[in-house]
Amino acid sequence: MADPQRPDWLDELIAVVWRLCPEPEKDSPGGTARRARNLGCVSPDAELGPGWFWIGLASRAIEDDQLEAAFLAPAEGARQHKFQLIETIQIGNVLKVRVAKHAPATGLFLWVPVRPPGLLEKSLLEGLTSIDQFTLVSGSPRAAPTR
Length: 147
Description:
Helix content is 20%, strand content 24%. By secondary structure, the protein is α+β, with helices and mostly antiparallel strands. It folds into 2 domains: 1-22 and 118-138, no CATH class; 34-116, Elongation Factor Tu (Ef-tu), domain 3 (Beta Barrel). The strands form 2 sheets. A 4-stranded antiparallel β-sheet has the order 1-8-4-5, with no helix packed on it. Strands 2-3-7-6 form a 4-stranded antiparallel β-sheet, with no helix packed on it. A hairpin with a 2-residue loop joins strand 6 (87-91) and strand 7. Helix 1 (8-20) packs antiparallel against helix 3 (119-129). The relative contact order is 0.22.
């Protein structure tokens, strides 16, 4: 049911975004299972010192929110060892990451979280449906400021 104060164009936009949102996955509770994917083996960065590693991205894009939750772990995953990223530097197609200095120099891989399908669309939908002030977009006249 449409909000009586909400402009028609906003109701139409909400309906379009609603159709873009995927159904929750049936095999995970609420469709929110967090998985990570292995981007490849990292190499120690001798220039920056202990705890620093680098990996070539080969034109792969990693979003900032994914880097915030990224980690280094062995190829089989983070069950036994996991090193959270402390700092990242991207220079062209090379990503340099810093973890704890006691991390092993070999055998680590960069793992980044996989975004759940429709995360951005759902976020947009939440933002649009939370709009409750319509004076700027409805064209309501405002008094001119006085000097």
